[in-house]
Amino acid sequence: MRRIALTLLLTFAAFGATDTWPKVRDLPGGTELRVYKKDGRPPINAKLADVTDDALIVVLKKDEEVSIPKDQIERIDYRPQKVSRPTTIVNNKVEDPNTQAPVGPQRDAKVPGTSSSSNMSFGGKPDFETIYRRVPVPPAAK
Questions:
Q1: Is residue 119 part of a domain?
Q2: Cβ(73)–Cβ(132) under 8 Å?
Q3: How far apart are CA 33 and CA 16, in angstroms?
Q4: Distance of CA 85 to CAs 27, 42, 88, 95, Å?
Q5: pLDDT tens for residues 84-133?
Q6: Which domain holds residue 25?
Q7: Pairing of strands 55-59, 44-51
Q8: 3-state DSSP call for residue 124?
Q9: DSSP at 38
Q10: What count of Cα atoms within 13 Å lies in the side-chain half-sphere of residue 87?
Q11: What's the whole-model pTM score?
């Protein structure tokens, strides 16, 4: 019974554990990445330069290119590149249009007027999304 349960568990793990490295290869150059390594250190924030079968090549903030071997990477998150269109909001307000302009030099007289204001918003950056997780190696069967 135990062997059957172990076999089923390994089968489900094999079907659920697909390598997503080709998705990383499809990312355009310059994509913002957050790379988590196996050693448990804080993630590396970088921009994608190139992807090979064995490594990820990224550019750090110091314009330094670094190659990270695939077997040292635990997870890769990327920031989707969305083209955000600016949103413009225009408010026009007419103040008391029925008031007539004063005749002659009068101080503090009510004069009809208009006011206008506008606001432009570009939106924020999208959140990071996970694109790659290291495929766990199943334990060797006895």
A1: no
A2: yes
A3: 24
A4: 22, 33, 10, 32
A5: 566 666 666 666 655 555 565 666 555 566 666 777 666 778 899 999 99
A6: 20-82+125-133
A7: antiparallel
A8: coil
A9: T
A10: 6
A11: 0.59
